[in-house]
Write a structure and sequence with these properties.
Low-confidence stretches: none
Radius of gyration: 19 Å
Largest sheet: 4 strands, antiparallel
Number of helices: 2
Structural class: alpha+beta
Order of helices and strands: EEEEHH
Mean pLDDT: 92
Shape: flat
Strand order of the largest sheet: 1-4-3-2
Helix content: 25-40%
Distance between the termini: 46 Å
């Protein structure tokens, strides 16, 4: 992990650049590191269940946002 110092362009930058590089802010300092390899991660049954619940909730929310009538009714 590389620490970014005195670089006006990269300071306070966070997120991924493709699938190669990730910028993180840790305790107010910006760091650059390689993109994490999560191919060997084994999820528990409970984690898989929560991922499924979240996917359903995300899909439902996306459908509401796309429908102007439903979106307006939720905005108050």
């Amino acid at each position: 992990m590389a620490r970014v110092r005195n670089n006006i362009i990269l300071k306070n930058l966070s997120g991924a650049v493709g699938k190669k590089l990730v910028f993180k802010i840790i305790n107010g300092e910006t760091f650059a590191c390689k993109y994490p390899d999560r191919s060997r991660v084994k999820y528990t049954k409970e984690q898989l269940q929560y991922r499924e619940i979240f996917a359903k909730a995300s899909k439902h929310a996306s459908e509401i946002v796309k429908d102007p009538v439903k979106k307006k009714s939720l905005q108050g």
